[in-house]
Queue: 2 jobs
Job 1
Amino acid sequence: MLHERPVEPDGWKDKLDRLDNLPGEPWADKNAAWDKLYHRLHEKPKRKAGAWWLAAAVFLLLVLMASLLLTHKVEKTWVKNNPLPVHTDIPAPVPAPVQGKKAYPVAPAVMAKNKKPLPLNVRPIDTPIVAPVATVAPPVKTDTQLLANAMVLPSPKKLRVVHINELEAPAGNDVQTARQPNNRTLHFSLTQTEDARMVSYETTNAGFNPFKVKIRAQN
Amino acid sequence: MQLFFARIDEPSGQPFIFYLHLYNYKTILFDMELPELIKEAKQGSAAAQKCLFDLLANRMFVLCRRYVKSPENAEELLLDGFYKFFKGLAAFTWEGDAALHAWLKRIMINECLMFLRRKNAFTIVTELAAEEIALDADALDKLSAEEIFGLVTQLPVGYRTVFNLYHIEGMNHREIAVLLDISEGTSKSQLSKAKALLQKMILQKGTAYVTRKTR
């Protein structure tokens, strides 16, 4: 780009271009200027502090994650060893409907009972007042309670459903006998009348001591 | 061109020891040609870099002073320019003294123009091209280089920059317009005003060698 325009061979331009020294203003300290330049040229590149900050951040993150994992494990073990009681759902209190300064609905029954002229801000309605269901927040179980319920509660014992006829063959039509563990025999006899059923209970242990229970239809 | 790194020949030998201590010179440069010096400097030799600095710094300092009035700022710009010169020396291929000087001059001029832009020195209002004034070269030839330098540095920054770029560096108005982000007309107008002011100053000095031309 330089010297694209042909420069006229002017003496004054050459003189000015080749001027090396300014007689009135000697350069203060050329060696000091070189010293500055030398240090700029040959200074060792500074280690980047950013790498150290990054390493420190990663280390801190790892420590934080490890501590969080350990805490979580300890909490799990504690919950296993200390089962929480079964959580019962307590319904949250229903908040009272907000009454503003604007007209609010009043049931006709209330209006009839009062028999007074309604204030200006009251208007009668036909539909019953329904509590704002949407405002009732469902009870929320905490994570710890859910975890306790899931982990601590024993699985329900499975009961086998057996028909009564499969238990034992009846001794008679109306008498059932069951064997007790101490060789006592219980005899149940069933007597049905028009209005009640009589169940007699006999034992062979200490003589005959019938104990009769009357079961009426009203019972 | 031959360079003599003659500090070792001094009677006390102190300067050589001083440099050896400070800059860890590995090579002692005697009678070295400029291409060899450039080659050494490319390889990072501080001695060669110092020799180049000693050789070229004075002229470049005067160049910076033509654009920037303050000697302190000129020195800073000179160091910035030499820093870029040495850092970019690896990509430089030797094509002669003139090419080296032109490249270094260009670096220095760019540094000066960037400095002036940072200082918002160019508050040049867009102007139409004014009538061109021709300076009588004889009048200027009769002045010494120092006198011409003194006159040029008295010009306002806009005039001075355009005058330097046009007359001393040999750029045309289009190049100047691109470089300073002004229109060609503004460049021409600034140059005319610079010449008029210079003429006035020469007249004040008692040398009336200026003729006027109209385009």
Job 2
Amino acid sequence: MTRVAVPNFGNYTIPLAASVECLGAEPWCSMSTPETTRLGIEAAPESTCLPFKANLGHFLKAAQEGVEYAVMVNSVGTCRLRYYRDLQQKILDRMNVRMHIFTLGYDGFKPPLIRHFDPPFRTFLAGVARAVLKIKVVDLLELQAWRTRALELHPGDTTKLMHACLKELEEAKTVQEIRGLRRAIPGRFRAVPVEEGREPLRVALVGEATVLRDKYLNHNVEDILGALGVQVYNFFLLGLETKKIFHLEFSSRHSRRGRLKIARPYLKSLVGGHAIETVSNTIYSAQDGYDGAVHIYPTGCMPEVSIKPILSKISQDYRLPILNCSFDEHTSHVGIVTRIETFVDLLYESKNKAWSLTV
Amino acid sequence: MILRTTRRKAIRVEPGEIGIPRALYFFYHPGLWESFFASLGFTPVVSAPTSRRTVERAGRIAEAEHCLPVKLFQAHLHELVEKVDRVFVPRVLSTLDGHISCPKLAALPDVAAIEFEVEILTVDIDQRRKSLGDTLVALARSLGADRKTARSIASKAVQQTRSRPRHSSERRPSGDRYLILGHPYTLGDGFISGRVFGTLRKLGVNPERGILADPKMSDSLVKWDTMSRMYHELESIEPGQYAGVIQISTFNCGCDSMLLDHFRSVAMDKRIPYMVLMFDEHTSLGGVDTRLEAFVDTIRP
């Protein structure tokens, strides 16, 4: 069967892989590793953003393993993401790597991707249904894990359970299996022994999507915060994002219009990338009573860097502490851990909470 | 506070002094905004040309991860705020039909309003939807001019942008021709590119700047407006027309980081020597001279 490489998108790589199955092809995916990142850094122009390098490295690794096709999202926005596919293709061609990267964009009636593979209609629909369900399951898993990890009595329990569930999800082949898993998840997380009666700090994670989701690129910020007894909320949930892209969300704060409305006092235009999301989510988290926010973005990210002054203004106006963390290939893990620990210390201090941690 | 012009709402502002930072969009159409505001009865105050002191100020106040032009913009604004209490900061979304501008320009008015205690007069410049002339008419109308005056002011301003010569540098009869590529705001800012032009002239060659012209654009993968101008300039070079191409880039420029490698391959296909000079606030001008001398020496027959 033809193999198709899918971009790495943290835990959402699993639904992405499932969506490739709807083409009647076999997905190739893996998590980012130092090796794939190194491949990308060597091949990419020096000052491109980290997601570009990671993604390119990922595809190069796939090509080394004999995969000839890849899929990449296609943005129509103003940020660098718009050029990812075309430039990656050019770089691969120049390196004499045999790989064709498909976009999801339209070209006539059918996207070229579907025209090329031309899957039977039933395979296609079943694949799409599985992918959508898997996205929902990952969303649910994430929500459960963020809540449980902050309160777990034995450090690592939640992460272990999360990995087990993800593995199961990856292997689930039928809609019934996925539905069953989805029903079982809340019970499994309830079974994790937690500290009763403690109200954890709540910290919002906002910023650029790839770095927010890819746990290797962001040095596993969610786990670092969780281990410090903080309940995180990562504002990039693919389920909501997909709804936004397909205009299925009309008036809530997740819709395009809702976000613009929330961000309006500070930002009156779409800047590109996820800038408007970052601004509106930060305002939302301040209004919702979060104790702090961590702004995560790749170094030099055009939209996110442009709105940094806006975030500091929001921070002042709403008295919401915000930690800016920019990530590139030289970011030191220990540095990130130290900064986050200090940030959390300050949050505890400002909340006058007793320092009771199980670390 | 942001004064934003829309079709429905006129802004009631008394004509007075208006600050125009000598950075970014100022260089897209040099002279346009001064003459436009002057003919509306305002007194335009343009910040002084970039100097070492501006760069130091930029380093002090600007966001560390921005590119040099945006940092300089902030410094120019900072300088103006000390002099005037109203500044013009348009939101540049596109300056070319079918293209988009760098995303950093889209957040400028909002960020300026947050960082400085000053009235910001702004207008959306989006030439995908509205020509520059129409934008100017709307702006003039919302500033209180009647329809006829607004039209004549706008058409005069647009005429003036068109009548600019394509290559501003004087050409000497002998010497190799070198094409200098860059964004309007890097080529226009004497602090960034002035040394390049000066040194090349001293070396006895003719530097020529591209980009200000509006060539017929074919569809290409390059969607950023200024990058697209550079790309088409580069694409349209005939063999032997230029001895070399010098690309002026600034550190952490997102557009350049993506596309310069592509430009290099275009130049390589045409067998034209291509060099990238990267500028930031720490660039040593002596180093620039050395690189230019070496580049010219290797090309010179």
